[in-house]
TrEMBL record, chain A:
Compositionally skewed regions (Basic and acidic residues) per UniProt: 155-165, 186-197
Record's protein name: NADH dehydrogenase subunit C
InterPro entries in the record: NADH_quin_OxRdtase_su_C/D-like, NADH_UbQ_OxRdtase_30kDa_su
Domain NADH:ubiquinone oxidoreductase 30kDa subunit: 33-155
Family of the protein in this entry: Belongs to the complex I 30 kDa subunit family.
GO molecular function terms attached to this record: NADH dehydrogenase (ubiquinone) activity
TrEMBL record, chain B:
Single GO molecular function: NAD binding
Protein's name in the database: NADH-quinone oxidoreductase subunit D
Organism: Parafilimonas terrae
Keyword list, A-Z: Cell membrane, Membrane, NAD, Quinone, Translocase, Transport
Keyword Translocase recorded: yes
């Protein structure tokens, strides 16, 4: 076990001064924050340095904090030094109205699809990405579905036509709806006459 | 291998002004039998050589990460089933151990060993499918059908623990839903006794089979540097010669108590991937045998432990739920997810069938995750496919695809 978190902190502070901030170690993993235009510089330094050798991109993803004005979107990078077996995570925050971030594809081929995915779901614009198009969602989609302003469908909604899913119309299987929006069993419908809708 | 450009030069060149292309576009997929899942590959072919490949994925995207933001912890387990459905117990247990890490739950040793047995069985069934399908794509169907009965036996073992076979939803936060019964142990003993013979026969059928070797050696190779840069993990990375295994590097579920080897290849081609998976199955057998022995050593009360003592997250016993009011209320609270989680951010990973399966869970103290990100190994390494097949033959593209063990469910999440 050569590389310690203290040593990483020391090296980063030596190189970038106070710009790399908020060091924490929740659940045993080193985390810190980097200014949004420095992500590539920090990653390049972590990659190139002979002692640090963070040369494996484990994953990258985004998080949306709608109440965090001016820094609504966080982009999280997980890096791994496989030689010393040390992991770290760092975050950059960007404004949701101008979510421009430098791409990591020049450093890691693995970043290509991960960044496309992040763009697809959060609309983060990765500057310099070779092919920044949607990957999992349909191409015609005109919004970014993982943002918090798009809540999941209310499971108790009544206005949906479930007929295509074998649930027999909006009132549920084996039932029908009457004019005054009450649900009755299908076998009862002869009794209410023309009140059915 | 000949350079693609020079092959192209030798071809008949159409006269100037001709609108015809010199290459053919071939659409492999989305539901082509050779793709083993719903994804599409648009290949540019020059004769039978591949000039370029463009992968399209996302046909079975089910928005798991979004759905997970509305679900309490237990309701997320069935979502993880549907990622790599060839080894869903690993996903389930990986998810549960992630929750345990967030909730700071320590599991007893016996639970860890039971989990190791299940996870290694899942790894065997995953590799077994992959390897026998590589055989099928090389023209040897026999092996696939022959080993299928042992996958069936593994599924029966799952069934005796959790009641289901493919999408298992096995276990709970803290351990298992019930202790392993005698039926489970009998089936496991039968598996330990009979399976090595079958695996040996699969080895005999393919390992030194000349046709198989000529089809797979040199097909879809990748160097260790490129594999790391592409984010390869699991058997595909080890086939390229990097001995990275989450079970060894960041042990979970007491994997440090077991003695096993991490097999590595050198060229990263289809044959090496086949060999690495094959050896991993033998190693998994070794691990299961050790775990079985270790479990035999627990005596008396210890031999009845199958879950950690975490009443906040572990469902009360069914007979109490039916007879006691408190248990019923508690059961209801857990099922409806009415328990707040601690605030925290945790990344946890396990060695899945295809590599490092990671869970990045962010909790803001609510009842559901604020954000949950799955690191799906398949999704990350499938990017390298174009590089792997460029300049190869069409049949190599098919065999490369099956030897990467691409699972559409895991890729699209």
């Amino acid at each position: 076990m050569g590389l310690t978190y203290d040593r990483i902190k020391e090296k980063l502070t030596e190189k970038f001064g106070g710009q790399v901030s908020n060091f924490e170690e929740p659940y045993g993993m080193l985390c810190f924050e980097v200014p949004k235009d420095m992500n590539l510089k920090v990653m390049q330094f972590l990659y190139d340095d002979d002692e640090l050798r963070f040369r494996f991109l484990t994953t990258l993803n985004a998080i949306h904090y709608p109440d965090n004005k001016g820094r609504e979107l966080a982009i999280v990078y997980h890096l791994h030094n496989m030689v010393d077996n040390v992991r770290l995570r760092f975050k950059i925050y960007v404004d949701i109205t101008k979510p421009d971030v430098f791409t990591a594809t020049r450093l890691f081929e693995a970043a290509n699809w991960l960044e496309r995915e992040t763009y697809d779901f959060y609309g983060v614009n990765f500057i310099g990405h070779p092919n920044l198009v949607r990957i999992l969602n349909v191409d015609e989609m005109d919004y970014f579905p993982m943002r918090k302003e798009y809540p999941l469908e209310d499971q108790t909604r009544k206005d949906k036509d479930d007929e295509m899913f074998g649930r027999g119309g909006s009132a549920g299987y084996g039932t029908v709806k009457t004019e005054d929006d009450t649900t009755i069993a299908e076998s009862e419908k002869d009794n209410v006459g023309d009140k059915l809708i | 291998m000949q350079d693609v450009v020079s092959i192209k030069d030798n071809h008949i060149v159409l006269p100037d002004g001709s609108i015809e292309k010199q290459t053919t576009t071939l659409n492999l997929g989305p539901t082509h039998p050779a793709t083993h899942g719903v994804f599409q590959n648009i290949l540019e072919m020059d004769g039978e050589r591949i000039v370029s490949a463009k992968q399209t994925i996302g046909y079975i995207h089910r928005a798991f990460e979004k759905i997970a933001e509305r679900r309490p912890l237990y309701q997320i387990t069935p979502l993880t089933d549907r990622m790599n459905y060839c080894s869903s117990p690993i996903n389930n247990i990986g998810w549960h151990t992630t929750c345990e890490k967030l909730l700071k739950i320590q599991t007893p040793k016996r639970v860890d060993y039971l989990r190791v047995i299940i996870m290694e069985l899942a790894r065997i069934s995953d590799h077994l499918i992959c390897n026998s399908v590589v055989g099928v794509d090389a023209g040897a169907f026999t092996g696939f059908l022959y080993v299928m009965q042992y996958r069936e036996l593994i599924y029966e073992i799952y069934e005796s623990i959790c009641g289901s076979r493919l999408t298992t939803n096995i276990g709970r936060i803290g351990g298992f839903e019930r202790n392993f019964t005698n039926v489970t142990w009998e089936k496991l003993e039968r598996f330990l006794k009979e399976y090595p013979k079958a695996l040996k026969e699969l080895d005999d059928l393919l390992l030194r089979n000349r046709i198989f070797m000529e089809r797979t050696i040199g097909a879809g190779p990748i160097s260790a540097e490129r594999a790391l840069n592409y984010g390869f993990t699991g058997p595909n990375l080890r086939a390229a010669g990097v001995d990275y295994d989450v079970r060894v590097h960041s042990p979970y579920c007491s994997y440090q108590d077991f003695d096993f080897k991490v097999p590595v290849g050198s060229t990263g081609d289809c044959y090496d991937r086949f060999l690495v998976r094959d050896q991993e199955m033998w190693q998994s057998m070794k691990i299961i045998e050790q775990a079985y022995q270790k479990i035999q050593d627990f005596k008396g009360e210890e031999a009845e432990v199958y879950h950690a003592d975490v009443p906040d997250y572990y469902l009360p016993e069914k007979k109490d739920v039916y007879t006691k009011m408190e248990s019923l209320i508690w059961h209801f609270k857990i099922i409806m997810g009415e328990i707040d989680m601690p605030v925290g951010e945790v990344y946890h990973c396990v060695e899945g069938g295809n590599g490092e399966l990671g869970f990045y869970l962010i909790s803001d103290g609510g009842r559901t995750p604020y954000r949950l990100h799955f690191r799906r190994p398949c999704f990350i390494y499938y990017q390298a496919y174009e590089e792997l097949v460029k300049g190869a033959m069409l049949s190599d593209a098919v065999i490369t695809m099956s030897s990467l063990n691409l699972i559409a469910g895991e890729m699209d999440s």
